[in-house]
């Protein structure tokens, strides 16, 4: 089994592009619309939803543009990403204004970041 894509919500195409294209370096590909006839029964959102796809070698985010409540707050839902160099990644977060959340666990730190719409990403370092 493998993950085919992760579906997330952002409040605008601008914030989605800023995080997924400019920050993560993914390519924006296909743009679709989920009609209200589907988004209502599936997601409880009774309107058409624009869907943007951002892809990389082994990752595919399906981002729904929706002005509703922001995700993240009070929810443990997240996606885990691996990076090669945590210090360089955190510096890139600071430079681009990406919120970083860290908490100690024993003698190590757990690191999460949020996209500009509140979606959470756990950050792990690629094991040598």
Q: In total, how many beta strands? A: 8
Distance between the termini: 24 Å
The largest sheet is: 4 strands, mixed
Order of helices and strands: EHEHEEEHEEE
Shape estimate: elongated
Radius of gyration: 15 Å
Instruction: Summarize model confidence as the mean pLDDT.
Output: 88
Structural class: alpha/beta
Strand content: 35-45%
Total of helices: 3
The stretches of 5 or more residues where confidence is low (pLDDT under 50) are none
Side by side, the strands of the main sheet go 1-4-3-2
Helix content: 10-25%
List the helices and strands and how they pair.
Blueprint: E1 6-10, H1 13-23, E2 27-34, H2 36-43, E3 49-55, E4 60-65, E5 79-83, H3 86-96, E6 100-105, E7 108-114, E8 120-125
Parallel strand pairs: 1-4, 5-8
Antiparallel strand pairs: 2-3, 3-4, 6-7, 7-8
Describe the structure.
By secondary structure, the protein is α/β, with parallel strands linked by helices. 23% of the residues lie in helices and 39% in strands. The chain contains 3 helices and 8 strands. It has helices spanning 13-23, 36-43, 86-96; strands at 6-10, 27-34, 49-55, 60-65, 79-83, 100-105, 108-114, 120-125. It has a 4-stranded mixed β-sheet. It is elongated, with a radius of gyration of 15 Å. The model has no long low-confidence stretch (mean pLDDT 88).
């Amino acid at each position: 089994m493998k993950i085919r894509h992760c579906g997330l919500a952002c409040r605008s195409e601008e914030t989605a592009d800023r995080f997924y294209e400019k920050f993560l370096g993914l390519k924006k590909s296909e743009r679709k619309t989920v009609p209200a006839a589907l988004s209502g029964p599936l997601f409880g959102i009774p309107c058409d939803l624009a869907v943007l796809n951002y892809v990389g070698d082994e990752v595919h985010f399906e981002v729904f543009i929706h002005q509703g409540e922001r995700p993240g707050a009070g929810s443990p839902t997240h996606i885990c990403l691996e990076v090669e160099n945590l210090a360089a990644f955190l510096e890139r977060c600071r430079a681009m204004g990406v919120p970083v959340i860290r908490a100690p666990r024993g003698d190590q730190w757990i690191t999460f970041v949020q996209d500009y719409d509140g979606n959470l990403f756990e950050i792990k370092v690629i094991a040598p």
